[in-house]
Amino acid sequence: MLTKPSVRTKVKPHRPAAPVHPLRPKTWSYHLMLFPGLLFLIAFNYLPMAGISIAFKEYIPALGFAKSPWVGFENFRMMAVLPGIAQIFINTITISSGEIVLLIVLPVILALLLNEVRQMWFKRSAQTIIYMPHFISWVILAGMVLELFSLHGLVNQMLSLFGLHPISFMSSNVWFRPIIVGSFVWTQMGFDTIVYLAALTALNPNLYEASALDGATRWKQMMHITIPGIRPTIVLLSALSLGNLLNANFEQVFLMYNPLVYPTGDIIQTWVYRTGLVNADFSLATAVGLLQSLVGFILILISYRLANRFANYRIF
Amino acid sequence: MRKGLMSLKFKPLITRRQKVTVIGSAVLLASTTLGSMVSAQTVRLTSAHYLSKSLGGGSHPLSWYFGNIKPYHKTVNVSIGWFSSLPTGLPPAASQTNNAYVRTVDKTLNVHLTWNFLEPFSELTTKEQLVVADNQMPDVMVVNQQQMEQLAHAGKLANLTGAFKRDASPYIKSLYASNHDRALKTATINGKLMAIPDTQIGYQWNLLWIRKDWLAKLHLQPPTTMAGVIHVAKEFISHHLGGKQTIGLVGPGNSSPNSLTTYNNFGGFDTIFGAFGAYPTYWINVHGKAKYGSVQPQMLPALKYLRAMYKAGVIDPSFATRTTDQEVAKVAGGQAGMFFGPWWMPGHVEQTVENNPNATWVAVAAPGLTAHARLNVLAPPWSLNYIVVKKGFAHPGVALKAINIDQTDYRGHNPAGNFYPRYNPGWANWPLLVQLDFYNSVPLQYRELKAALAHHSPASLAPRDVTIYQRILKARANQAHPAKDIAYWAEAAAWMTGVAPISANEKRYHQVEPMTVVLPVSMEAQWTQMQSLENETLLQIITGQKPVSAFKQFVQQWKGLGGTKITQYVQAHIKAFSK
Amino acid sequence: MVRSRTLGARIADMLIVGSLLVLTLLTLAPVVHTIAESLSNGAAAAANAVSFWPIRFTWSSYTALFNGGGFFRAFGISVERVVLNGVLSFFLTILMAYPLSQSPRNFPARRYYIWVVVFTMLFNGGLIPWYVTIAHLGLINTIWALVLPGAVPAFNVVLLMNYFRSLPKELDEAARLDGASPWYICWKIYVPLSWPALATVTLFAIVTQWNSFFDGFILINNPHNYPLMTFIQQLVVETQSANLSILTPTQIAELSRTSGPSLNAAKFMIGMIPMLAIYPFLQRYFIHGIRLGSTNE
Question: Which of A64, A221, B410, C165 is the most exposed place for a label (fewest CB within 10 A)?
Answer without folding.
Answer: A64
